[in-house]
Amino acid sequence: MALGVYISVPFCRTKCSYCNFASDVFSKTVFETYVARVRADVERSRQIVAQMGGKFEHEVDSIYLGGGTPTVLDSVQLARIFDAVREQFAVRAEAEVTVECAPGTLTPGTVEGLLRCGVNRVSLGVQSFVDVEAAAVGRLHRHQTVLDDIARLRAAGTTNINIDLLAGLPHQTAESWEASLVEAAATGVPHVSVYMLEVDEDSRLGRELIAGGTRYHAHFVPDDESTADFYLAACEKLESVGIAQYEISNFARDRFQSRHNLKYWKRQPYLGFGVDAHSMLMSAASGADAVRFSTADSLEKYVSGAPLLQTVVSRHAALEESFFLGLRLTAGVDLRDMSRGFGEKAVELFQGTISEFVDGGLIDRCGDSVCLTSRGRLLSNEVFQSFISSADVSA
Length: 395
Ligand code: SF4
Known about the structure:
- By secondary structure, the protein is an alpha/beta fold.
- It folds into 2 domains: about 5-260, TIM Barrel, CATH 3.20.20.70; about 315-395, Arc Repressor Mutant, subunit A, CATH 1.10.10.920.
- The protein has 17 helices and 17 strands.
- It has helices at about 30-45, 45-50, 75-90, 110-115, 130-135, 145-155, 175-185, 205-210, 225-240, 260-265, 300-305, 315-325, 335-340, 345-350, 350-360, 375-380, 380-385; strands at about 5-10, 55, 60-65, 90-100, 120-125, 160-165, 190-195, 245, 250, 270-275, 280-285, 290-295, 310-315, 335, 365, 370, 395.
- A 9-stranded mixed β-sheet has the order 8-9-7-6-5-4-3-1-10, with helices on both faces.
- A hairpin with a 6-residue loop joins strand 11 and strand 12 (about 290-295).
- The protein starts with a strand and ends with a strand.
């Protein structure tokens, strides 16, 4: 099966207050070192994969540059990363090639440079079309910036565009959220991702929400119930304009589902490079199903060559993964396919868990498939946890 290649670029112009990714603002002087390190890893990917006990095909049908804000690198640096990938792998002519961009970083020169690299899909981190909301969390763009970026991309021939929206931002109300949804739909983009604000210790806003305070506008964050309502309103609104939900957080018009991201949920092979990049490949050893490995989650550790973290995925763990990743998809999990892949007896073991969630209204049965209900999507972490045992083997 063709491979997906992910490359992380952990640099941003500013650090958004809600962001819990391994990204930050760094001096441009480290960009060259980073690009060189990523290129070196891409060049020795066969060796890395052999050491991790995985196997993969030479053909690549998706490349995804995420982060961070990859477009803070200049066109020459971006081209050097893409060149390394194309030198080491057979990238299919029709491959999906995505770059994440912060609105306002797409100058005409950058767009031209991306096209030269073969980029045919752009994901814009909009989060909100309401300027006061975007500004409150440190985004540097206004809503007109987004419209200008989309127009520039389309004029250059790129129509496969995603807009990220975030429910639960400070100052967000039902009306302002509706305004963002209406604006996103009016742009006519074929893909929208909707996330709910994560409250954890890994972001400044998250920490303020836990500890209290006003510096990052935590006192203007809507309550959990409102955020859940915003999410449900997004599902309804996007569906009504033909942008159908295909995953918990992802919505697309026909044939515009993200090929790269589908690999994560369908357990198809992908190889990641750069800071905090994750890989999943079929195992080269007969006793295991797959191998997962990830790079260091800080720039300093990554550049200094910190070892990869490896997890061997047993057959049983693979079955669990197939359940909790597959349930993220609107189409759900086909139990016949699972029985064919893992054996009827192994799948039988999960019938009790499934029945429990069907009775609780979190899972629906549709013929041979099971999928999350809309309430199940809101409580998905609770559902997924029940499909995971402690039998996984980590190293
Ligand atoms: S631009 Fe994206 S990656 Fe960078 S700080 Fe903001 S949310 Fe995080």
